Amino acid sequence: MVKMKTFKRLMGLILATSVTTGLMVGCGSSGNSGTGSSNSSSESDSDETSDESSEEEAQILTAGDENGTELEMWTFVELHAQFYQEMVKEWNEQNPDKTINLKLTVLPYGDMHTKLQSSLLAGKGAPDLCDIEVGQFPNFLKGVPQLETLTDVVEPYKDSIVESRLNLYSSDGEVYGLPTHVGATVAFYNTELLEAAGIDYTTIKTWDDFKEAGSKYYDATGKYLGTADTGSIWTESLMISELGSDYTDDKGNPQIDTPEMEKVLTTLKDLQDSNAIATIAGGQPDNEEAFGEYNNGNYACAIMPMWYMSRFINYMPELSGKIAIAPAPVFEEGQDRSVGGGGTGTVVTNQCESKDLAKEFLAFAKLSEEGNIKVWEILGFDPVNTAVWDNEEVTNNPDNQYVQYFQNNPFDVLKEIRDEIGLCKVVANSPSINEVFCTTTLNSIFEDGESVQDALDYAKDEVDNAIQ
Prior knowledge:
The protein is of the alpha/beta class.
């Protein structure tokens, strides 16, 4: 009889060596969200929203001036389409001499990326503009990118844009995609639960503090502070970034059997053994099963990118007023306390006949202060233009649903970690690494009790096989 661990590994190897469309490494995207894990669907901003239309028919929407220049755009997130509809109205009001008629098509995640790739390779049939999920982006940078460079339209905004987010969509010194959000990883604490157990979340600065608080919380309640994720690598990405390392080296080659990665996973395993964290239904915080666990008070903390705020609003409304946002723990005080997670890069294809106009509009929508205010107000994402962070009329608006929901202002935390938001690269080998970790490695460690070193040795072999 085949042992369960062996079976899991065989299945993991099969999965890892198959097409990994739609997956992205931790600092990238996921699932439900279209932003987060490996088990999910897409970030759809992976992060960006859980209501992407994965199996629905394409939706076609139009916005703008019917007499303006027609631009066609594809996206895989309906909420993104709503954002672009609003932005084209803003653009036309400010630019009456070069108005736009925007035709938006919302396609299922997999279909859209496959169709875009095929159209670009064929040299016809591609839209003028398109959203590309961060985990898919390296596929569109191979060889000679069939995308327009956006470096020139980025320049006027460069001083106020979080640079690491531009770097996600850049190659050889040129920017090819514009980001949708920062995705700064933070800690979301249920203060009502913690205070009842005598725990002050503001004293949690390091992973040792987290362990102590988690053990105390478990002793008092029999429940867990945080999660040991088996279906995503959000926390691993944060921790590896804190140690100044990454999943890949400067040439994009996998480096997952490093001392830093061993320290990350050993620390998480120690947290699990101390009852500070435990595996969660669904494998990670960003799915329906996990939302139920938080609603039922079975976990008191989620360490996730800031786009997870929308999950609280949409799926955990009863926790309103109970959740505080704080910088994530670090190994040693003084280390950077955040990393960007998830993302969608928006591009102008080389088949666009009105390239200059498309690029100008895209920069206005994704990089300008006006655009980033809408990113916050419509999408609920942390804006990449930091000028918005200091606009108190926007950030402290008492009518904003996010300001109302959380105990403290999200932008206060963003400003505190402004210069501490790291980057895990998303490169051609990232999907294979993500797949191996989320189908085999993390399950082996947190479910089967395998040693970290053995699990990493096996992960290295799996990844090497997958990318050959």
